[in-house]
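Structure tokens please, single chain.
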Amino acid sequence: MATIAWPDRSVDSFGFESSPMAIVAADDQPLSLLDRGIALAQQYRDYWLEVLARPLEADRISDDARDFARFWELDQHVSFARRLIRELFDVTSAVEVNLCTDQETGSPYLEIAATFTGEVDQILAAYATFTKAWVRAVPAGTREQIRLAYTVE
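Here you go.
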């Protein structure tokens, strides 16, 4: 079990504890830098998951989609996809998240739908960037449960 001691403990404006030096130990042995990072990440995990799961303004998420995302623990991935969409594309509509059913397999999935504007080359480049970031960040099984649908104006 790791313990974290905070000499000269203080709290910053975001509510995080900060100090010039954190002493982290397990069974009276100093932890490696990686283990220290893991201990701190675990300490703030719930906070960041809650921040990432907050809906962006103007996004519309159906109740069914919200329940499905929570049941399968997809909130953080849906939030990541919405943020990527807003960063990479010129979005002209609300980003909508709905629960849909695959016509071929009958499997449920979340559809993230938006309308974009722009030149075809610009949209294709943004889509390629979206796909690379999505594949790097989201596990394969989870990617099957969340799909992007878009319309170009």
